[in-house]
Amino acid sequence: MSRESHADHPGEPVEPALQGRLPESLRAELIAFRRDLHMHPELGHQEFRTTSAIKARLEKAGLRPRQLPTGTGLICDIGEWDGRRPMLAFRADIDALPIPDAKSLSPYRSTVPDRAHACGHDVHTAVVLGAGLVLADLERRGLLPRPVRLLFQPAEEVLPGGATDAVAAGVLDGVGRILAVHCDPRVDVGRIGVRPGPITSACDRLEVTLSGAGGHTARPHLTTDLVTAAAKVVTEVPALLSRRMDARSGLSLTWGRIESGHAPNVIPMEAELAGTVRCLELAAWHEAPDQVHAAIDEVATLHGAKSEITYVRGVPPVVNDPVMTELLRDAMGARRGAHAVEDTEQSLGGEDFSWYLEHVPGAMARLGVRTPGDPIKRDLHRGDFDVDERAIEVGVELFTAAALLDGRGPEAV
Fold first, then answer.
1. If you count Cβ atoms within 10 Å of the first and of the last residue's Cβ in the chain, which end, N or C, has fewer?
2. Are 161 and 73 in contact (CB under 8 A)?
3. Angle at the Cα of 283 (from 282 to 285), degrees rounded to 5?
């Protein structure tokens, strides 16, 4: 990939970056960097090549990135923190998904079987890298009002998310505010979606094993009719929860797997169920495990089955701080105008960015990646997911403006 950037050309004026126009050399490099990551996707906690590529580029720009103790991911400070005024951090997630890339005609299709950047993490990484290169250039020229931290986080797709390990490793030491973006294929490129308050949902994983006395299908009265018991748990537990939890909390239990039995004339002794529990409200998320356990036990017992429940805590909702949300709105407005910002709705998707917000205020924006007029409806976590790569420049502009506004006020941009 190209390794040339604006930071490598000290003779180029810095004003284009301040005015929201990236040099063509940097635009081209970031697109090439994103495509390289897209061709070499790595799963959570396996992002060794990705980490090395980010580290090499930051070091080439004269920066000193520090690898996280988990072995993948890194942080990099731009400017020296004085120990007093807390830094603003920008976070990118760097892992891919365990699904095949279905873009058969794409020149940057994944080269790794059953692995794909189908959630846009390659874009997020290119955005934070690009913002870092621009801000490092400004810092060398004395134009960065305060230090910022770049955070390249592994394992966002692995519950409960790599953010928990990152926080434990001290990535928020000295950080007072944090921002992120997430690709949104419903929003046109050149725009962002913002929302104060909850913007994603909580997401937990649920695994249930039902057991009982099996037997011949000719004599179900002498057995625990386990297939029927499993079917009742699948259908009745979500209905029970809808009556025991406040409907405004948006709690949703959806099953993704059910397995039982091997022969049509044998009632099995075991059934396995798995699914996700999603919730829009933080208070209901704290209540959900007890309610889910009680509902499953109740239905299983009614049908003579024993239940073993594994409830894996995932992530709480991302709750955007109103002040930080306004910073994103103001930064985008300063770069592209107020028309480039739209209000967005809360999603039922989960995001481990929420763990950072348990410690410091912050906000996540939805980054538009849809080409205007594109008739194809794309979605995240699909093998054919792709983006309009102009979104990378938009994200860099957003974060650069946010760093300047956060430090100096509207006149900075």
1. N
2. no
3. 65
Spatial strand order of the sheet with 270-279 comes to: 252-260, 270-279, 202-211, 306-315
The proportion of the chain whose per-residue pLDDT surpasses 90, expressed as a percent, equals 87
**What does each C-alpha distance from 77 to 59, 116, 192, 352, 376 come to in angstroms?**
12, 29, 26, 22, 40
| Helix (H/G/I), strand (E/B), else coil: 164 | helix
Tell me whether strands 215-216 and 266-267 are parallel, antiparallel or unpaired. Answer: antiparallel
pLDDT for position 104: 86
Domain ranges of the chain: 6-200+317-412, 207-314
Q: Is the pLDDT reported for residue 16 higher than 90?
A: no
Distance in angstroms between the alpha carbons of the first and the last residue of the chain? 31
d(CA 166, CA 168): 5
Higher pLDDT, 19 or 187: 187
CATH architecture of 207-314: 2-Layer Sandwich (3.30)
Q: Which two tokens stand for residue 143?
A: 């134009």
- Amino acid at position 159, single letter: L
Cα gap 382→118, rounded to integer Å: 6
154 contacts 94 by C-beta, under 8 angstroms: yes
Q: What is the pLDDT of residue 8?
A: 40
- Rounded to 5°, the CA angle 129-49-2 comes to 50
Question: What tokens does 59 get?
Answer: 């070091």
- Its pTM stands at 0.87
How many residues comprise the chain? 413
Specify the 3-state DSSP secondary structure of 342: strand
Distances (CA, A) of 349 to 166, 205, 259: 21, 13, 25
Task: Identify the CATH assignment for 6-200+317-412 out of 3.40.630.10, 3.50.50.60, 1.10.10.10, 1.10.340.30.
Answer: 3.40.630.10
| Cis before 160? omega within 30 | yes
